[in-house]
Amino acid sequence: MAIMPPFRIVQTESTKMALIVQKYGGTSVGSPERIKNVAKRVARARAEGHDVVVVVSAMSGETNRLVALAHEMQEFPDPRELDVVLATGEQVTIGLLAMALKDIGVPAKSYTGWQVAVRTDDAHTKARIDHIDADKMRADLGEGRVVIVAGFQGVTAGGDIATLGRGGSDTSAVALAAALKADECQIYTDVDGVYTTDPRVVPEARRMSTISFEEMLELASLGSKVLQIRSVEFAGKYKVRLRVLSSLTDEGEGTLITFEEDENMEKAVVKGIAFDKNQARINVRGVSDKPGIAYQILGSIAEANIEVDMIIQNVGAQGTTDFSFTVPRGDYKPTLDLMNGLKADLGAAEVNGDDTVCKVSIVGVGMRSHAGVAAQMFRALAEEGINIQMISTSEIKVSVLIDEKYMELATRVLHKTFGLEHA
Ligand code: ADP
Ligand code: ASP
Ligand code: MG
User: Fold this and answer.
1) Which end of the chain is more exposed for a tag (fewer CB within 10 A), N or C?
2) Ligand 1 within 6 A of 221 CB?
3) CATH architecture for the domain at 19-189
4) What are the residue boundaries of the structural domains of the chain, listed by start?
């Protein structure tokens, strides 16, 4: 059985091999059996001589269950109290994993986010980590213990429990790795690395042995949920060596997120495809085409703390303009209400929208030096009769907004068009 195959580091005689942060997601700790397996994996890393800090998620389905419970109490749960409820999921798994480790003779200690002082800002349900105090963890490691920390949670300056947004345990792990100056942060999940697209949607998707930081950041921000975007941002900022691996097999080196181009990196122009259903489109039609209109529309949305993604402004009839933009699907109704409230002020002819849309994106640093990639994408979609509602591009990505019923078809077609199933 390969033991910690991804980890290559030169061992000197007197020093421990390395400090590793391992993160196990919901499926990986989804049952007592799986938690015991995680314990075995952690024990192996320790037997190899590594210091290990483990970050765990709640058992799969648990955070959703807690969200649903909260919604039974209040239509829009109070964010502070919602965080109190949501953070309980991870507290269960840290304790269970500590027990499983002790049961096989490995000294371990579990900590909630506030016990190890993961300090966050006040933005409940989407808090950002400001600071982590690594002293306590270092002391435990020095005494030969495995340290287990609850992911997804921290504590505000005022002492309140805060959570980091869905998928936030990835970010906890990378932030801890940065604070501890760990040699590697390993994200163990239910797939054995980062694929050219979600392998659940495209069975032909291929695992990449490496992916550049820039491309990973783009894929994560465009909806690939294999890593939470903030974890990738953290890895970039603090140059954390970050790897995605399977907790369900012992095989393979997973995918390493690299910061430098190396000659082994795949040269494909398009490297990956992401999709995102968390989208809704709003149209404001027939507003007068004059300076300040975009500000009037988008300023009010920014004030309501709603994030706007894609934007299109078209010249309409008789000195008017049509304005369309996208917001997260959960903000669809509030945004429509806001625009209807402004309709008279704007002199708009019509406000409407659609919350059954999705965004599909192709990503690759090779696009910088290749023309015609977008055209190839649009042709492939046209050949399938898929209508493009909006487009946005950057140097290394092209995104289209389409009807959500075509999301999987579009992803499969683009995967094929850009030859992603072949190495
Ligand atoms: P965890 O609970 O371990 O955090 P997630 O469900 O958050 O796991 O993330 C892993 C899932 O991400 C995979 O099961 C897969 O369906 C999905 N996924 C989306 N895009 C990709 C991709 N490009 N490569 C690998 N997995 C992806
Ligand atoms: N348990 C949290 C969630 O389901 C955090 C995580 O799993 O990363 O979003
Ligand atoms: Mg996740």
Assistant:
1) N
2) no
3) 3-Layer(aba) Sandwich (3.40)
4) 19-189
